[in-house]
């Protein structure tokens, strides 16, 4: 039987990989390879800074003015980002998830999203974190447990790093051919996606990150031969942290935390989030890549991380 554990974390090991998964927000608190950090972390039992590692559902990113229409009915969500008048990141990142199963290398957690202001839909979300010789694999699923269709989107607020190497000494390579322009004040889409080729947003080849500022949704993945899109943060010695996604996560929001913007990552300063997402910001309104689950229907998707030398 599933049990509740508010401040609980679950340790995973496999070979040289180690991870800690928090019960609150099903957050990826630690991922290491042979003692070298592949993610930013935070103290167990404390609030993750800048939503680090947390699951974003039943929508990722922002919903403009907290309002959207679905099947002809208008819904008004609670405004959770008052400074920009947006509803942000869903309902499950600050609640304790239920433990389904925990072994040495795998933990499965689930949460009933519940009904909320402006959200009458019944959904259960499940996330499995599993370590193997290939690194971390995260398998996410959502099931419509209600009696009417439900909109759905999902993201993971994942911060990546290469050991103790400062971000400005790293390069970034993104498997993405387009970006969605955002209004810099409210971080909401303005216009349609545009190609990144030969622009400051072109990371199809590795580029130095010194001084780079990003808070940008990228799409049009360019998968490798294994069908995965691989996004690579690489240090000067050639070691790298790779975040990969399958086709279910067709978007990544790339964000640089930076003291210059009053958004420093504690004890690190500049830090980089690569956030797998199923849809772009404000998808409840644009309906771009929005998932619609019929009663009883289940969606699933997979992404992961690995060390590379």
UniProtKB/TrEMBL annotation:
InterPro entries: Aldose_1/G6P_1-epimerase (IPR008183), Gal_mutarotase_sf_dom (IPR011013), GH-type_carb-bd (IPR014718), YihR-like (IPR037480). Coiled coil: none annotated. It comes from the Bacteria. CDD domains: Aldose_epim_Ec_YihR (cd09022). Pfam families: Aldose_epim. Gene3D superfamilies: 2.70.98.10. This is Aldose 1-epimerase family protein.
């Amino acid at each position: 039987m599933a049990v509740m554990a508010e401040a609980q974390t679950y340790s995973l090991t496999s070979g040289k990989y180690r991870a800690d998964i928090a019960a609150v927000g099903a957050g990826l608190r630690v991922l290491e390879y042979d003692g070298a950090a592949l993610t930013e972390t935070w103290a167990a039992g404390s609030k993750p800074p800048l939503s680090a590692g947390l699951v974003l559902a039943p929508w990722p990113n922002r919903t403009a003015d907290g309002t959207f229409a679905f099947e002809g009915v208008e819904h008004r969500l609670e405004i959770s980002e008052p400074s920009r008048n947006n509803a942000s990141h869903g309902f499950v990142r600050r609640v304790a998830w239920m433990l389904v199963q925990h072994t040495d290398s795998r933990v499965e957690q689930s949460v009933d999203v519940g009904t909320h202001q402006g959200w009458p839909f019944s959904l259960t979300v499940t996330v499995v974190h599993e370590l193997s010789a290939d690194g971390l694999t995260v398998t996410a699923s959502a099931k419509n447990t209600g009696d009417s269709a439900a909109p759905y989107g999902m993201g993971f607020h994942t911060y990546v790093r290469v050991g103790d190497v400062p971000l400005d000494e790293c390069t970034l390579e993104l498997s993405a051919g387009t970006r969605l322009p955002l209004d810099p004040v409210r971080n909401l889409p303005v216009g349609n996606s545009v190609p990144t080729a030969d622009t400051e947003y072109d990371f199809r080849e590795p580029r130095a990150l010194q001084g780079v500022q990003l808070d940008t949704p990228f799409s049009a993945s360019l998968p490798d031969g294994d069908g995965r899109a691989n996004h690579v943060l690489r240090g000067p010695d050639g070691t790298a942290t790779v975040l990969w996604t399958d086709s279910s996560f067709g978007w990544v929001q790339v964000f640089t935390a930076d003291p210059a913007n009053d958004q420093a990552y504690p004890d690190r300063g500049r830090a980089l989030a690569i956030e797998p997402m199923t849809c772009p910001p404000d998808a409840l309104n644009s309906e771009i890549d929005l998932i619609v689950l019929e009663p009883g229907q289940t969606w699933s998707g997979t992404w992961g991380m690995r060390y590379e030398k």
